[in-house]
Amino acid sequence: MPTSPSVASAPASPSPSRVARDRRTDLIVVLVALALAGWVTSGLWIDPNGRAITVNSSDQALFEWLLAFGGHALTHGDNPLYTYLINVPDGVNLAVNTSITVYAAVFAPLTYLIGPPATFLVILTLNLAATAVAWYWLLSRHLVRSPLAAAVGGLFIGFSPGMVSHANAHLNWTAGWLVPLLVWRLFALRRPGHWLRDGAILGVLVAVAFSIAAEGLFFTALALGLFVAVWALHPANRAEARAVLPSFLRGLAVTAVVAGVLLAYPLWLHFAGPQRFHGTGFDAVIHSEDIAAYPAYPRRSLAGEVGFGTSLAPNPTEENSFFGLPLLVLAIGCFVLLWRGGDARRRATLWALGILAVVFTALSFGPVAKVEGRRTDLPMPFDLLGHLPVVNAALPARFALVVTPVIGLLLAYAVDRLRRRPPSRPAAVAWTVGFAVALVPLFPTPLLTSEREPIPRFITSGAWRDHVSPGGVLTPAPLTLDVYPDGQRWQAYALAHRQGEFAIPSGFFLGPGGPDDRGRIGPVPRPFGALLDQAARTGLPPIVTEGTREEVRADLEHWRIETVVLADEVHGAKWPVDEEAIRRTLVLLFGEPERVEDVWVWRVRR
After folding, report:
1. Cα–Cα distance for residue pair 171/404, rounded to 1 Å
2. Angle at 154 (CA atoms; ends 153, 159), nearest 5 degrees
3. Mean of pLDDT over the chain
4. How sure is the predictor about 5, in pLDDT bands with cuts at 50, 70 and 90?
5. What are the respective helix, strand and coil percentages of the chain, to the nearest 5?
6. What is the pTM of this model?
7. 389-404 burial string, b = 16+ CB within 10 Å, else e?
8. For the chain, what percent of residues have pLDDT higher than 70?
9. Cβ neighbours of 118 (radius 10 Å)
């Protein structure tokens, strides 16, 4: 956020004792952030290769696959944004998915060294810690004088309910460290004489952010655009805004050119490439924030552990607000404190922050308001905007994530104000109690984790290479989907351990084929996959007729499947899988299988 006389950065030439004290504070904040990140992810650190996040093992498997595939594509000269290794024969456009290409490239050596699951855990842990540290750095170096104030704001944002919720396997949304860097570099464009360099730096940062968290970049751009417009139009800032506007616009132009050049191919693939789609397959009403969610408590918090958690989110990975009523009251109190004691420029900043919070809160409610899970007929602003291109691909509930930094900034500004102008003793006690009552219940608890089925020896030993031609198609049973992620876990292992390539039909990805030409998870279902899914869910093999076998043969020919593999233990991300029912179904279709290592194998005669 822009600095002002009322919200100034540290003195230009601090004393040596001040420098040493600030460095000690920096180190303490980094260590606290790493400790908290390790605490939140501690369940996975017990056995990184053998445990999964209970509520979202499917997304964890997807990101592990993206790390393995991205590293493999870059080291083998393949296209990291489009692949035919899944969803044979059509392939998958990863530019419209969350490809995390930068992470895959940077961490490729680690992926090859310790494997995709462990690398996933390292990135997830660093994401949480880096988000808190990056916000602390922005606050302490540019916005507040008090290191304690910066630490309170940074640690709150880094381990806020929304961040901890998305730590359930979302490597894109937990990369919140990108936001303070984008804020910093955007406002650096105000400096006269440096617009070319500053614009180029911001352009590179935008390209990096797009490759890690495109949806998060979109939200950040909307939020910054609104903040800058409101801030610049305020009477207290109009003169400064006019003075810096030429340099700012030149820098933005350079940013657009640099980012456009770096992202030309990804953007073309995203909007005009094969296997693209418009919007998503997610219901905007379901994936909107309940009004009652804002004063509620998240499940992975101290308050949630003692019974105050709720199930107002569509799933445990989308608790995007859940601030608790005491924190909302405290945030309003901080706003009032700062407004009363602030000059015109301070009030301009607060005015812009307030409008930002109100707008994004309203957008998070989706097309219609929901209260305590009950849908009302009251239309919301997203109902007007949700049909616009790009906006229609966003989940409205995630607009609430923008409110978190606003609250974090208010907390930091308030602590800074109280440290610089201490109130009376009773007032100081009241503020201390208020912060404790608001923040202690939100202290995060570790993510829920559980053991997941091991990757079969058939894969880890490389025995699969004797049962499928190089680059040929092998499928696990059931077919790979978000609810059955084994196929991409097996493929990730083979790619990361340099065993070679095999392709799989289906997969966990977003692609075309949804209603009204929107996207959907995975491909349009075909009979073979539906038969295996039915057996896996119900435990009852379907009735198989000659007509059924003809449909299955057509599917096998479409996918060019050479081998069907059934493991002794199949991972079901949402429900238990009945492996015996699947085996009996495959026997009805193909006859008795061959036992290889620890799997059942059916060779498909084409």
Report:
1. 18
2. 105
3. 94
4. very low
5. 60, 10, 35
6. 0.94
7. eebebbbbbbbbbbbb
8. 97
9. 18
